[in-house]
Each structure stands twice: as C-alpha cells, then as structure tokens.
C-alpha cells in the first residue's frame, strides 16, 4: 500500500475516508439549492419509518432503531398505527414510491458528479439524464444487486462484489456506457485501491449505526449521512484520475 501514499495536494493523493467528510460537507452546504429535494425525500422515508414504528417516537423503544427503521432491540409500541403501513406498503402506492425513489437516486448521483466536477447543475439537466440513461441505470441497479445477493450466499464473494460494483453507477453516468462496461470499469479502478473503497463504506456503516441512539438516533444519522453523501462520488473522482 505504500506505493499509493502521496503527499497531500498532489493530483495522485487519495483522501482518507474520514477526511472526505469535510470536503463532502462543504460541497453539500454550498449546493443545497440543488440537493434539498433529494434530502427531503429521504426525510419523508425516515418520517414514514417513525409513523410505522411509533415506539421510536414516543420513547418506549428499549434499545433503538437503526437508520432503516428496523428494531435492534425490544420495542413496545404505545399505540397501533398500521394504516400508514398499509397505505405506503402495498399496491399502487408502493409502486409509485419505488419509481420515484429510483428516479431520485439517478438524479442525485448525477447531481453529485456535477457538483464535484464544479459543473452547473439544474433539474432539467438531471431529468434529461433520467430520460437518457434511466432504463440502463435500472438494469445496472438490478444486475449488481443480483450479483451481490447471489454472492452473499457464499458470504465472501458477495462482499467482494459489493466493492467491485460500488462505483458502477458513477461510471455509467460519467461515461454513458453500457451496463457491462460500467461494471467492468468499476471493478478495474477499485481493485488496486480496495482499502479506500472499504474505508468509505465503513464510514457509511458507522454513520448508520448512529440510528441505535434512542429518540434522536435516526435523525442524527440522517443529517450526518447527508453531509457525507458526496463521499462516494469524491472517491470515484480520485480513482478515476489515478486510473
């Protein structure tokens, strides 16, 4: 790994994963005008978790909830609120929610690339990306997810697949390439620097663990995660230059 260590400020320098937080935070704060709708959608998802798990709001959760809203301890709900789960969890509304989430994910990752490259972004530009690459991006999400899921049956291969294809969405958005090329390119540029990929993933996992804090854990994890959200795109930019 010594050969990858370069002086700070060098074009070949790779930023430690924790140090990416300050870079990401500043870029996020400087570009809230374009990022706020994506954070709002994530916040709505978080609020839905609170509504469907009222114990996390009323303080009767004995251990806490993680960032996805799943209990990590013994919960004792104070009142039933299953109508919201029924409303958002099945049928037509679930389909709408999935479609909107995918569209926003594509737009968010395109916006992240624009921001770190210093480009002027707009919602019309982001929507044009969805129209141009939307189906390819959906195919990429599904295929990489399938590879990782199958790999996780054997545990180690799934972990390797997660690292290999972590940057694939950014590759496709950047190069407007095929699904196969995006996956191969992501694997190629991440392999020599796998530790730096795992570093970003590790920080993201640590942030999600803030969700186990009673009462406010999920909200804290949401805010910190939003401030660190540009880290994967920043890592892609660094490894792209090195490759």
Task: Provide the fold topology.
Layout: H1 20-30, H2 32-52, H3 55-58, H4 82-89, H5 91-116, H6 123-153, H7 156-164, H8 168-175, H9 179-190, H10 194-209, H11 217-227, H12 231-242
Helix pairs in contact: 2-5, 2-11, 5-6, 5-8, 6-7, 6-8, 6-9, 8-9, 10-11
Note the quaternary state here.
single chain
Q: How would you sum up the global shape?
A: globular
Largest sheet: none
Specify the structural class. mainly alpha
Mean pLDDT over all positions: 82
Model description:
The chain has helices spanning 20-30, 32-52, 55-58, 82-89, 91-116, 123-153, 156-164, 168-175, 179-190, 194-209, 217-227, 231-242. With 243 residues, it is mostly helical. The protein has one domain (15-242). Helix 6 (123-153) packs antiparallel against helix 7 (156-164). The protein is globular and about 45 Å long. The chain starts with 19 loop residues before the first helix and ends with a helix.
Highlighted features:
globular, mainly alpha
Quickly describe the structure:
By secondary structure, the chain is mainly α.
